[in-house]
Design goal:
Elements: E1 3-7, H1 14-24, E2 27-32, E3 46-50, H2 57-65, E4 71-73, H3 77-85, E5 89-91, E6 97-98, H4 103-118, H5 131-150
Parallel strand pairs: 1-2, 1-4, 2-3, 4-5
Antiparallel strand pairs: 5-6
Helix pairs in contact: 1-5, 3-4
Length: about 160
């Protein structure tokens, strides 16, 4: 049975994700590291997971449990790559579906942006959410969850030495 994992600390589309998951009757794991103030619906399909503080602790929890039948909503590109390695599907809050074809370039771009920031450069942040973004997310999540319910995708193979 497919499940939905939400990297919840900075996720602006939790309510939309709940709506889609509830319609499909899927369990939702809402994973955060200290955001106790996140309001969740009273529903037996929702599982709040609060992990300890620390870099990548929530990511590790998700990556350790996600399977090829599942979907993850995350803005974190390395977490998305880890999900793809397990055969799961991953998408952003704006509905961008990560695949083996596009994750490598995203990881490389992230590394370049981190280097620029570490040397004093400014890279800017993501644009705010628009109604069109929310609509794209709803459609992409519905598509990804329905595909996951039909069966897993081939597991992404990393090139020697990783990305």
């Amino acid at each position: 049975m497919s499940e939905l994992y939400i990297d919840a600390d900075a996720c602006p589309v939790r309510d939309e994700a709940f709506r889609v998951a509830f319609r499909l009757g899927l369990h939702v794991h809402v994973v955060s590291n200290g955001a106790r103030g996140i309001l969740l619906p009273e529903n037996p399909l929702v599982h709040r997971v609060i992990v300890s503080e620390g870099a990548d602790v929530a990511d590790d929890w998700i990556a350790d449990r996600i399977t090829a039948d599942d979907v993850c909503v995350t803005q974190d590109i390395p977490l998305a790559a880890r999900c793809l390695e397990k055969g799961a599907r991953a998408l952003t809050s704006k509905g961008h579906l990560w695949t083996a074809a596009n994750i490598g370039g995203a990881l490389a771009g992230r590394a370049v942006a981190e280097h620029l920031r570490s040397t004093g450069g400014r890279t800017g942040g993501p644009a705010g959410m628009t109604p069109a973004d929310r609509s794209n997310f709803l459609s992409a999540l519905d598509t990804a969850l329905r595909a996951a319910m039909r069966g897993p995708v081939p597991v992404m193979k990393l090139p020697p030495g990783g990305f």
